[in-house]
Write a structure and sequence with these properties.
This protein is α+β, with helices and mostly antiparallel strands and about 325 residues long. The protein has eleven helices and 16 strands. It starts with a strand and ends with a helix.
């Protein structure tokens, strides 16, 4: 069965939008009414999926934050339409529509629905928590434009440990989207090798927040930065360096030793699965793979050889005084 999606403001939304949420969340799942209805409804866009014979089938809402983040929520499908692709149609429509406006899509997912959201390019970015008595996790899509172009072709786009296909990187925007998506899924290990911590790429608030969450979120996290040149770090107040000063035991920076063999291309490694490789230091072109244990292992071995022969950063030591 095919479904169409229509968008409304809260003031102009048909009664079916409220009725579906009432039936699914309040009557079926036992969510308190005062938790279900909130002021956000007034500022959100509301999406209604209808069947080919114009019967209301499911709803969802999307609203922006003060940053480049859009929040998706209140997704509900009536029992008689479940298993027919209504939820996927709603979510894919919102991702496609939001891709040109937002760089970050966020939602709170009921734990049982994680695989559903992963099929639409979202990845888990929190530990499980309880919300009105129901287990939830936070999920994000940090590459809505890239994901929306591939939704019909990939089973779990950009999900660490699951998406085995390569994502080709051709532009700076592609690079940032893949870099952040990969790094945001690391739970313990993140290794970076580059010529320097280039400001346009690594001195960004979102990347800093991702690294900060990783460093603070795991007791035994392993974050290593291996660079050729650390002098640019003193020219500007680099956000990663400021983070290193606050968490010196969690993030380590070293310089490659030019007397030993080194790789001539930069790369990022996440856990034992994810890799991001650029073909040259000063260009964005390359590729990312989110489930490539073999490629990760080969690059990890190369990284460790360089790391073991590396030397401490003099510039960072001066900054830490």
């Amino acid at each position: 069965m095919s479904f169409r999606v229509r968008k409304y403001s809260w003031q102009l939304a048909p009664n079916s939008v409220r009725e579906i949420r009432q039936q699914v969340f309040i009557d079926e799942q036992g969510v308190p009414a005062d938790e279900e209805w909130d002021d956000t409804d007034e500022i959100a866009d509301h999406y209604l999926a209808v069947s080919h014979d114009n019967r209301p089938a499911g709803v969802a809402r999307l609203f922006p934050s003060v940053t480049d983040t859009a929040h998706i929520g209140r997704m509900a499908v009536l029992p008689e339409f479940r298993g027919q692709g209504v939820g996927a149609r709603l979510l894919e429509h919102m991702v496609e529509e939001a891709a040109d406006q937002y760089q970050d899509l966020y939602l709170s997912a009921q734990a049982y629905a994680i695989p559903f959201y992963q099929r639409c390019g979202f990845h888990v970015c929190s530990e499980p928590y309880d919300d009105v008595g129901i287990p939830h996790v936070d999920m994000r899509c940090l590459a809505p434009r890239q994901v929306s172009d591939q939704l019909s072709q990939r089973a779990t786009p950009m999900v660490l440990g699951q998406d085995e296909e390569r994502w080709l990187i051709g532009t700076e925007a592609d690079l940032v989207a893949n870099l952040d998506t990969l790094a945001n899924q690391a739970r313990k290990q993140l290794w970076l090798y580059d010529r320097e911590l280039e400001h346009d790429l690594y001195d960004r608030l979102r990347f800093r927040e991702i690294v900060s969450a990783l460093a603070r979120g795991h007791r035994h996290c392993d974050i290593r930065l291996l660079v050729h040149d650390d002098r640019p770090l003193v020219k500007k107040r680099h956000q990663i360096v400021e983070l290193m000063k606050r968490l010196p035991s969690k993030i380590e920076l070293r310089l490659v030793n030019q007397d030993y063999p080194i790789e001539d291309f930069p790369f990022l490694l996440a856990e034992r699965q994810g890799v991001l490789v650029r073909h040259e230091f000063d260009k964005p072109q390359g590729y990312a793979q989110f489930a490539s244990a073999r490629r990760n292992k080969l690059l990890s071995e190369s990284f460790l050889r360089m790391w073991e022969n590396a030397i401490p950063s003099k510039e960072f030591r001066q900054l830490s005084i």
